[in-house]
Amino acid sequence: MGYQPCELCYAQRNPYYVAIPILLLALIFWSKLSKIMITTLVSAMLLVFLWSTYQAGYHAGVEWGFWPGPDTCSGMGNGISLDQLNDIDGSRVVPCDRASVRFAGLSFAGMNTIISIIIAAVFALATKKSVQKNRLNATATQQSKRAVFTAPAQYPNKDNPSNFHANGWAEICGHWPADCRWWADKASARATY
After folding, report:
1. Are both 172 and 99 inside the same structural domain?
2. What would the pLDDT profile of 50-66 be if each residue is shown by its tens digit?
3. What are phi and psi of 103, to 5 degrees?
4. What is the pTM of this model?
């Protein structure tokens, strides 16, 4: 396209240089990742794209004149020494405070800001869902561990009283009142052996 990137344009690429290889590796090894690793990965990508949003928003603000950019590329001249004037014809400073081109009123930095916000929002939702899912799984695991010790068998078998747990009398009697006497007899018979 022939557009020369400035110093801030190059800085905006860094989050993508970090995110793309990590995401490619995650896709390759997705089935081998633990749930906590997936949550960590998604949270890290959220942070990377928040960093990208900050960098792109900063650059767009420099282009719109909301705040000054770095001295080395905003045309202020404070970052240039007299020794660099000898090579003035060989070097080209691309200004950070002027957009090379605008599409629908947005520069490349403005477009990157919007894209980074969208990607960060997607990763924020994914992080939220992943954390909720991990909490639900942890809660279900804790409840199932408790259920092993406190709950009776869902459908007790009269021929095998060993599958009945003593804490389940109220539930059994509530659902099958006629069976309460049978269970009581079996339990007392086992206790006398």
Report:
1. no
2. 999 999 999 999 999 89
3. -120, 120
4. 0.64
